[in-house]
Amino acid sequence: MQGSRSGALMATAWTTLMHNGDSGYRAYARAMGGVHARLKKEIAAIPGLRLMGNPDACVVAFTSDEFNIYVLADALSAKGWEVPRLQRPACIHFCVGGAALQKLKEDPTKTVVDKYLEDLKEAAATCMATRGEKGKVRVHACMRGWGFRDRARDVWPSVLTTCRRRKAWLASTAWQVPYRTEPL
To answer: Are both 41 and 124 inside the same structural domain?
Structure first.
């Protein structure tokens, strides 16, 4: 269990496999694979949106050549979604996990991903109609998670200064994914 990741992740995966059994794990993986394939297909069909490559795993990233993708992210955030925003290139993404398979309390015939796609289509249509607006780019929630949201203005400049002094490569995605393998 050597490496940069916590052994707790592997222990959790092992415990889940033992609890669900091989057939339960495979059924869950098939269901998540189906959601992933559906997201790729439906997002690619939404006018104004374009997939970022051909994702093979759980994250489906997309952008727009028609409107500011961050305006779409703002619209989804206003509907209650947590929207990860990425830079260089500008895009947002949806991470397929167990939550995407859950049924909605207000409508048990729909899953979370059904609601997300409805909201995404509606927000994309609005963005296509109101092109030219500017959305918000955000630093990933690392500061917010510490409970120092108000202090982020004080802390972030010193982080950037430290990285510049070390002549570190600093792309926004280095802060998006805490387990990134490239050195900072």
So the answer is: yes
